[in-house]
Amino acid sequence: SARLIGDACVSFETNCAVGIEPNHEVITELLNNSLMLVTALNTKIGYYKAAEIANTAHKNGTTLKEEAINLGYVTEEEYDSWVKPEDMVGSLK
């Protein structure tokens, strides 16, 4: 019933949501290590090389940046200038 759902929402807020704070360090790490960031490389090095980077990083448990450099497709400077999560997701404020 609607009352049960309403009571559940109040209970969730009181017992779970109040006081929760984001862990910005973990959020930043997860964002920067996301395999989805490889899409930023498509226009620079092409789809197939970008896909190879993502597949290799996933297989090896490494980062996109590590594999992009190891495979010789980009330099560290190129990667850092091209792959910017903040430009891909818009304003984080």
SSE arrangement:
Blueprint: H1 2-17, H2 24-32, H3 42-45, H4 47-60, H5 64-70, H6 76-82, H7 85-89
Helix pairs in contact: 4-5
Instruction: Tell me the β content.
Output: under 5%
Q: Radius of gyration in whole Å, from Cα? A: 19 Å
Q: Percent range for helical residues?
A: 55-70%
Mean pLDDT, all residues: 93
Tally of separate helices: 7
CATH architecture classification name: Orthogonal Bundle
Structure write-up:
The protein has 93 residues and is mainly alpha-helical. It has one domain: Fumarase/aspartase (C-terminal domain) (Ribonucleotide Reductase Protein R1, domain 1). The chain is 67% helix and 0% strand. The protein is built from seven helices and no strands. α4 packs across α5. The longest helix is centred in the N-terminal third of the chain and has 16 residues. The chain is elongated, with a radius of gyration of 19 Å. The two termini are 37 Å apart. The mean pLDDT is 93.
